Amino acid sequence: MQPECHVQVQFHAPPAELRRYFTTFYLVELTVAAGCRVTDHLHPEWANLRFVSGDLPDAEAHGGTVLSHTNFCVTGPSSHTVRVEQGSARMWGIGLLPLGWARFVGVPAVQYADSVIDGNTHPAFSAFTPLAATLFGAEPDPAAELARISDHFLARPAREVPDEARILAIHGALIDPDLATVSQLVERTGGSLRTIERACARAFGFSPKLLLRRQRFMRSLAQYLLDPSLKWIGAIDGHYHDQAQFVRDFKQFVGMSPRQYAALDKPIIGAVMHARARFAGHAVQALDRPEGGAAR
User: Fold this and answer.
1) Do residues 122 and 179 share a domain?
2) Number of domains in the chain
3) Which residue has better confidence, 291 or 104?
4) Which of 220, 262, 267, 270 has the most neighbouring CB atoms within 10 Å?
5) pLDDT per residue as tens digits for the range 66-88
């Protein structure tokens, strides 16, 4: 049984000049009974930079990689859940769209897929360590903290993104619920299959086939978590051939059965998803548009 906790979530749209690079900037304030921690599972998503003040989380990625005791946690693009354990803290998250990864990180996303990384020590993320060091002041001040995040990225020098148009075209095709196959993705975006595969590895972190499977699964998961009264059968995406296929995907992406997952307490992710749906129109990052998840 999880200890009692209280979660407050605020979502913010990035400045207009940055919206095509980020999903949202978001603040999670978690209050847990003294000396206690809660456990939750981050679902598959795009890459995130998370800066923490207070109790520093433990995170475990697929494959058993564990990250502990850092105030700057990077999660690469993910196709599996990440288990987190967290006490009372304030955390700012920055969701990087594929184009944002290509511009602000600039190394192949496939190298960091399904990883948790200490951003303070990894050279690929050194440009963000000044933000980790200065984001939080002596007292909580969400408006000032948000301004520091925006100013940090607005001040970064412009860098041309190779294949920018192709990245945007692939992203736009991926979020189309009517698009179901790799051949349709290639036809929609142009170029050869090999060209699309290379672009996906660099900016998205996964093969086109896995990205399409992840999209199908995340549409189903988001539908269920926002309205559990649908039951799993009512939330399953129409591109699944049958319930057995959905269960196989569920076990791959989540590491447990739908029944086991439904029985878990979701103290953090449940609050975050509902707040995100109200703000951005999508409960999960994977469904955000390439021009930015939040239009306001």
Assistant:
1) no
2) 2
3) 104
4) 220
5) 999 999 999 999 999 999 999 99
Q: Which of 111, 127, 154 is the last residue of a domain?
A: 154
DSSP 56-73: PPEEE-TTS-EEES-SEE
For the chain, give the mean pLDDT: 95
Contact 154, 133 (CB under 8 A): no
The CATH number of the domain where 202 resides is what?
1.10.10
State which residues form the domain around 187.
164-287
Residue with tokens 């000396």: 35
Range with the poorest average pLDDT among 51-55, 75-79, 147-151, 277-281:
277-281
The Cα 251–Cα 16 span in angstroms is 38
Distant-in-sequence, close-in-space partners of 243: CB < 8 Å, separation ≥ 6? 232, 233, 236
pLDDT, tens digit, for every residue of 18-29?
999 999 999 999
B/e letters for 14-44, b = 16+ CB within 10 Å, e = fewer, are beeebbbbbbbbbbbbbebeeeebbbbbbbb
